[in-house]
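Quick one:
INPUT:
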């Protein structure tokens, strides 16, 4: 059983409908509103988490995100998607964003803290229906540590990772992010060049899978459904489907499994088509405020690449997604476990697994291009679980070695003194 199952109510279970009286009490507890004359809260101090400019509230099947920099919000759930909508009347009171916005007849009233793990509230009022009230801990990236004292024990890892990144910057620029998932380091996150934004390569397949599984959780699709795959869908590169005979009907379950286990390009492209293009995957990233991630072309689409259409991501965005998956904030626990199981059975193991002692449990997803080498995922060391993202650009051969060095550096730190 994972730490999140033992120590936390995941937001899937923790974002709950609550009575109006409770919502009122929570709003009062969050601090005085601007109309009440309340001013900004004191700035960050020792042990006080800083406010972000963006946060999102997870709930079953989706998220409500706010961005105070652009005064925008987005509601994306099983029952619809508002897209990025401007709320010019958004108030930033203390360390919370508050507002009421009506879109297509539905009113969204929100009080979203800009400090991760604090309680947020969303009320959705549709014409002719009882208001739906959701409340739960909000997500910011990076999240504040749950235990700053324990979190300080992860901070020396930053210097060790920076030494590797600096030593290889001339040939393979790199970025890395690491998030404690076990609680051993107070759920601290560290990064070196966390906003580094290389071509995503096959790492972007994680977002494709999460969007598919989110729809499964919403009851919109079933993994047992079949999709017709034709010869025109088949591409080369990594994967197993290209060796089969087409046309044939392939289940969504097998397409999902192959996309991760074999990094199957054909399977991933078929899933993009089944999801109706790039828009839903990009909407998923946007709803979690992962703005450095974009899916702009299918795999092995050389014409699109020549037009400058490319997929990108960053270590910070990767670890943000991995953390949301682990904590069951964007998927149910069942879908989370299925995705992590696929990642555990990854067949391309020349990077993270090759850098660690034999038998160390990992679940990961690689990404390879002639000018990019990545590996991201989870170290599943009992009591020291972490999410990691190692991204590089430059020649793939030397990039592979940079990833291995970074992967071993993290392992040595989290196992030191155990």
């Amino acid at each position: 059983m994972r730490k999140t199952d033992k120590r936390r109510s995941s937001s899937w279970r923790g974002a709950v409908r609550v009575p109006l009286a409770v919502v009122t009490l929570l709003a009062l507890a969050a601090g005085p509103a601007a109309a009440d004359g309340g001013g900004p809260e004191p700035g960050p101090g020792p042990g006080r988490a800083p406010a972000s400019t963006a946060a999102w509230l997870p709930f079953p099947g989706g998220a409500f995100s706010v961005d105070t920099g652009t005064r925008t919000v987005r509601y994306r759930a099983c029952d619809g998607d508002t897209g990025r909508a401007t709320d010019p009347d958004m108030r930033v009171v203390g360390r919370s964003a508050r507002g009421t916005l009506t879109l297509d007849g539905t009113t969204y009233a929100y009080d979203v803290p800009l400090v991760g793990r604090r309680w947020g509230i969303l009320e959705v009022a549709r014409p002719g229906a009882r208001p739906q009230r959701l409340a739960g801990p909000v997500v910011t990236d990076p999240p504040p540590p749950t235990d700053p004292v324990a979190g300080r024990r992860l901070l020396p890892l930053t210097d060790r990772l920076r030494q590797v990144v600096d030593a290889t910057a001339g040939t393979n620029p790199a970025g890395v992010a690491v998030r404690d998932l076990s609680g051993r380091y107070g759920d601290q996150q560290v990064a070196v060049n966390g906003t580094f934004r290389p071509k995503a390569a096959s790492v972007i397949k994680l977002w494709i899978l999460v969007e598919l599984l989110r729809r499964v959780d919403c009851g919109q699709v079933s993994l047992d459904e079949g999709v017709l795959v034709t010869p025109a869908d088949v591409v080369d590169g990594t994967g197993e489907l290209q060796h089969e005979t087409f046309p044939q009907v392939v289940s969504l379950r097998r397409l999902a499994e192959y996309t991760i286990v074999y990094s199957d390009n054909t399977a991933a492209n078929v899933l993009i088509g089944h999801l109706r293009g790039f828009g839903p995957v990009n909407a998923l990233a946007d709803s979690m405020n992962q703005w450095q991630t974009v899916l702009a072309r299918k795999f092995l689409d050389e014409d699109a690449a020549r037009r400058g259409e490319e997929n990108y991501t960053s270590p910070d965005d990767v670890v943000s997604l991995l953390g949301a998956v682990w904590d069951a904030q964007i998927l149910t626990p069942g879908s989370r476990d299925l995705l992590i199981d696929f990642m555990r059975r990854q067949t391309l193991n020349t990077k993270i697994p090759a850098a660690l002692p034999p038998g160390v449990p990992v679940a990961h997803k690689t990404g390879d291009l002639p000018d990019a080498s990545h590996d991201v995922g989870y170290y599943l060391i009992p009591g020291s679980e972490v999410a990691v993202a190692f991204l590089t650009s430059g020649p793939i051969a030397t990039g592979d070695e940079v990833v291995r060095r970074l992967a071993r550096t993290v392992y040595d730190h989290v196992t030191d003194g155990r």
